[in-house]
Amino acid sequence: MAPLDDDAKKHNQQLPGQGGVFNLVNLNLYHYAANNPIRYVDPDGNEVKIYVVIESLMPSYIGPFRSGTTARGTIVATDTETGETVTGKSFSGGKPYGDYAPEGSYDILTPNKDGHYRLEAHDSHYGDDKVEGTDQSLLRLHETGRGRSMGCVSVEGDDTWAAIDDLLSRTTTSSVEVESKSRNPFKTDRTDTETRYGSLEIIYATESPIRTAPRGGCSAEY
Question: How far is the C-alpha of 41 from the C-alpha of 91, rounded, in Å?
């Protein structure tokens, strides 16, 4: 059994393949599918995979009822079919208030009229446009725009966003069923078929503080 103390973990994470067999996560056969290979599939392995590594957290405060935290880090998008990769910076939450996007795995689904991609959390209530165990909902992936984010993942730089959007528009896609209510509150008992462009993983490389900010959805349109 490989040593699991802090020094060993730090060393293993720097090895090719994120530690190989010395990283216990890599021994899980279904980690790629969030431990649910029936629901989350990528039969051809051809999709865009995006990793957002949060490197810093900055509290924001604009009043007794308006506070939050902005998470900043690096975003890496790769088309697994072509090998094309785009790297840049991103931020989430706290602009002007609100919480940042929770750590975890998300599907990248059909964009709205503004080109903002829906982020659907891999949880036991897949399709409800919410993040289980939090008050977060309506998370989106989009450009910086007016510089606002109350929970969405915002990509900094017009060129970086254009390159990531281009990868998503050209990738091999699939379809998933989700609830309709996030886009139309009058269709609470119906489902929609959404296009799935790939997956997004949010990883916090910095210690997450206790959350005191009001949580909610992104400022973007549905």
Answer: 28
Total domains in the chain come to 1
Q: Would you say residue 29 lies in a domain?
A: no
Instruction: Answer yes or no: are the C-beta atoms of 141 and 116 closer than 8 Å.
Output: yes
Could you tell me if residue 19 is inside a domain? no
Residue 95 in any domain: the answer is yes
Q: Whole-angstrom Cα distance, residue 117 to residue 108?
A: 6
Q: Distance (Å, rounded) from C-alpha 222 to C-alpha 209?
A: 29
Residues with Cβ within 8 Å of residue 148, at least 6 apart in sequence: 95, 96, 154, 219
184 part of a folded domain: yes
- What single-letter amino acid sits at 89? K
Domain coverage including residue 183: 46-204
Which tens digits make up the pLDDT trace of 184-200?
656 666 788 899 999 99
User: For residue range 133-172, what is the model confidence (pLDDT) as tens digits?
Assistant: 888 888 999 998 776 677 789 999 999 999 999 999 999 8
Tokens of 57: 């957290």
Task: Record the pTM.
Answer: 0.72
91: number of CA atoms within 13 Å, CB side?
23
Q: Which helix (H) or strand (E) holds 13?
A: helix 6-13
How far is CA 151 from its chain centroid? 10
